Amino acid sequence: VEETYIMVKPDGVQRGLVGDIISRFEKKGFKLTGLKLFQCPKDLAEACCWEFIDDFNLFNIYLQWLQEHYKDLNSKPFFPKLIEYITSGPVVCMAWEGAGVVASARKLIGSTDPLQAEPGTIRGDLAVQTGRNVVHGSDSPENGKREIGLWFKEGELCQWTPAQAQWLRE
Ligand code: GTP
Ligand code: MG
């Protein structure tokens, strides 16, 4: 089954957009299989502003985890700012399931730069800048599985059959 990892970033949570964002995937007809609010521990968030902390501690584990999540981006000049942004407040972590969900979710989210995103998309309707683009979505089915594995523990995901299933697909 195809799965994608969707995350409401700290700006989306602070701006009260969580319900709207969840609602768009729900109404589309995808199946929610995981949902939690996650707050990066405060000392880790502060430590994220530092270039290097060599100790084997929780911070390093968390940073490695974020580097793994953003493994294609960790050499980019904006990477430290991205880590600071993502750890700046609570995020809402979600796993969504359904045939074609990865590409469809990317369409619902819209272009990385909210000013280029089409009206009707999440970023097109709700954001103005790449560095504050309110939501993350996996870019391939492989990354969907990989990211769900990074952000959720076993037992946090829920397998269920929505009552509307027979009305969504013939
Ligand atoms: P995600 O769904 O969040 O992965 O966005 P994306 O797939 O549309 O973009 P990409 O994976 O290339 O970049 C990940 C995130 O890094 C973006 O969503 C932005 O939050 C951030 N980012 C990307 N490019 C820039 C940039 O040039 N400047 C800043 N400040 N942030 C960037
Ligand atoms: Mg991406």
Topology (elements, then pairings):
Blueprint: E1 3-8, H1 10-14, H2 18-28, E2 31-38, H3 42-47, H4 58-69, H5 79-86, E3 91-97, H6 101-109, H7 122-126, E4 135-137, H8 141-151, H9 165-168
Antiparallel strand pairs: 1-3, 1-4, 2-3
The structure holds guanosine-5'-triphosphate and magnesium ion.
Guanosine-5'-triphosphate is lined by residues 73, 78, 81-82, 112, 130-131, 133, 136-137, 139.
Outline the structure in words:
It is found in: Mitochondrion intermembrane space; Mitochondrion matrix. Helix content is 42%, strand content 14%. The chain is α+β, with helices and mostly antiparallel strands and 170 residues long. The chain has a domain at 3-39 and 89-165: Alpha-Beta Plaits. A four-stranded antiparallel β-sheet has the order 2-3-1-4. The two termini are 17 Å apart. The model is unreliable at 49-56 (pLDDT under 50). Guanosine-5'-triphosphate is lined by residues 73, 78, 81-82, 112, 130-131, 133, 136-137, 139.
The number of E-state strands comes to 4
CATH superfamily of the domain at 3-39 and 89-165: Nucleoside diphosphate kinase-like domain
* Gap from first CA to last CA: 17 Å
Beta content comes to 5-15%
Could you tell me the CATH topology label of the domain at 3-39 and 89-165. Answer: Alpha-Beta Plaits
Question: What is the name of the CATH class of the domain at 3-39 and 89-165?
Answer: Alpha Beta
Main sheet overview = 4 strands, antiparallel
Shape type: globular
Secondary-structure element series: EHHEHHHEHHEHH
Sequence of strands across the biggest β-sheet: 2-3-1-4
Residue windows where pLDDT falls under 50 for at least 5 positions: 49-56
